[in-house]
Amino acid sequence: MAMKVAVTGAAGQIGYSLLFRIAAGALFGPETCVELRLLEIPSAINALEGVAMELDDCAFPLLDSIQMGTNADQIFDGVNLALLVGARPRTKDMERKDLLDANGAIFTAQGKALNAVAADDVRIGVTGNPANTNALIAMRNAPDIPAERFSALTRLDHNRAVSQLATKTGSRVSDIRKMTIWGNHSATQYPDIFHAEIAGRHAAEVVNDQQWIEQYFIPTVAHRGSAIIEARGSSSAASAASATIDAARDWLSGTPDDDWASMAVVSDGSYGIAEGLMYSFPVTTKHGNWEIVQGLEINDFSRAKMDATAAELVQERDMVTELGLI
Ligand code: NAI
After folding, report:
1. Interface predicted TM-score of the whole assembly (ipTM), two decimals
2. Is 202 a catalytic residue?
3. Which domain holds residue 65?
4. What is the pTM of this model?
């Protein structure tokens, strides 16, 4: 059996890292072949052909076929997983509303195409920014696909938070469980260690340093993207691809029993977050389904941060509503 995986923006930076990992079996393991469906805009098709030549040259045993194109209805036909990476970057003088509008055009069209032609079991992960609101737009333009099949990527933030916590406490990343990113994949996100564990111990107690949490940990995780642009001269790509893989793999195959993942999914009102927002929660997953972890105690510090990032998502939702995108 082969899984049909669509990747949009496949000729971009993230695509260049992501496609080779998928083709090597990182999503479904060594028993499942993959058919890649790569969507690009016309000006990037030449570059995409070069990437496909390199994929051929890797002679990946699990890679059954590569289909490339600019027509979403053709590329998404029968896909089981769609990783929506391609998006319109923010350019100079662009207001947030212009950015939402430009991306809205992409994600309304892709939502409609997925609605029309994707496989019945399709799962859709949105990496392209502004990821949460792009996912909301795609979801709302795909009325026949259950809303739970859409998610936006906050796994990179989650992984960044795990790594920072491991460094601070001198522990291994594999000892850290139950990290949470709440809210928007933006500077307002809230990386929360109050429920996290380090080798079974309460992380916030191990750290025992509220000043580090507030003045170092949260800003470092939330502004890591800008720090990487500053240092590298371009935005995070390999780590974003790796997180895109982690998120999709865990969604499809399940989180471990004693852990959870952070994923932006449609809110059902849990933790007082407005229903219908595409908000990052702690989730457990099994067989391609997710459930928001319930019953976590939220302290006042966390509550304020969770509400602030929710307020930003409400603003984004109001803007795309006003623009007629949803
Ligand atoms: P990039 O600019 O290198 O590549 C984007 C690709 O998307 C380009 O090849 C472009 O031609 C293509 N594209 C644009 N419109 C398209 C459309 N309508 N259909 C298909 N393809 C289209 O950008 P990069 O570095 O690969 O990043 C991609 C996106 O991921 C950006 O929006 C970036 O902000 C976002 N990102 C998200 C992260 C997250 O954690 N959620 C982390 C890092 C990046």
Report:
1. 0.99
2. no
3. 2-152
4. 0.98
